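Internal tracking record. Fields below are filled automatically when a chain is submitted to the structure queue. Please do not edit lines marked as system-generated. If the sequence contains nonstandard residues, flag them in the REMARKS field before resubmitting.
Queue: standard
Priority: normal
Entity type: single polypeptide chain
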Amino acid sequence: MSIAHPTSMALLKPFLNLIIIALLCIQFSQGQAQIDWVNGGYWYTESGLAASAIDSTLFTHLFCAFADLNPNTNQVTVSSECATFPDTVHQKNPSVITLLSIGGGSVDSSVFNQMASQPASRRTFIDSSIRLARASGYDGLDLDWEHLTMPSEMANMATLLEEWRAALDDEASSTGADRLILTAAVAVSPQLDPETRFPTEVIARNLDWVNVMAYDFYNPSGSSVTRSHAALFDPTGGPSGSSGIRAWIDGGVPREQLVLGFPFYGYAYKLVNPNKNGLLAPAAGIDTSVGDPGYGTVAYSKIRAFINARRATVVYNSTYVTNYCYSGTTWIGYDDTQAIATKVSYAKNNRLFGYVAWHIGQDYNWMLSRQAFQAWGAKATVAVA
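SYSTEM-GENERATED OUTPUT FOLLOWS
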């Protein structure tokens, strides 16, 4: 038996990934693609990563973020990068499913609420989203309406989703094309406060799945202790990915419609005492020497550079399912390969619909993306929630 040369094996890896995707992830039935699960990632147009540089063989689904909602015309507009995104990522993986994500965390909720509050503006928004998706070759649309705070916004979202799904069904029926997929990115819990709750029944009835943003629970701005912003479990009773998933299931959204979201970034804290450097250690807010001055965010690629340059100590906490590193008074909480693998195993073992990362431009040499993709194919090891 001959043994392949290492260089030859490296060249074969992208093709092997394509075979895995084709065999495991997508089946086709009459009229519409039947999706088995989601190994997904968001690509952010301003990330500095060119769409042509994406290793799309590591994903079954890729989301282009973001298309914009014009508040004056209520039409969806798209950048040239998003307009050509499907064609670009299909060069390396013809099977990857692409979705156009509309909105984003920087958009004020009132912009979406104004559109969704009137029948005519909803129709304009819906029709323009379908036209754009079809013209650019997308397989689906993703709503990223964030920062909802009022019951009236939730009611308007419910109406929008009902009409959007009906329009997608009608368009597919009239054209004979596969229906466009409809998804949404949602908060970690459907209950935002005692009065404000996501329309879970409408979501379950009209969306193909939801991407649960199980991150940003905490940030170092004004914080007095270090924390994990994306812990899968929290023994202190704070927000966590697992408690959020349970809340969505209890709220009426089947686990088979839930996709676990995790971050490819962390938060940098400034320790009060470098000798007290674990979780919940005394902190004095943001360490701006590493993290963004606004909230303290730092991309995984920069975290890896910090670890290498400062020879920082790296810790994996299996109780919370999180990583952190520290050097001197700098402390960063984030997800490394151990946390990512455990989260993917949790999603698989709990029969969720998959996982999705925000955002892939923050990865380092595709380490986290590759770990997630490989972990989905491995035996699950995390108990059912």
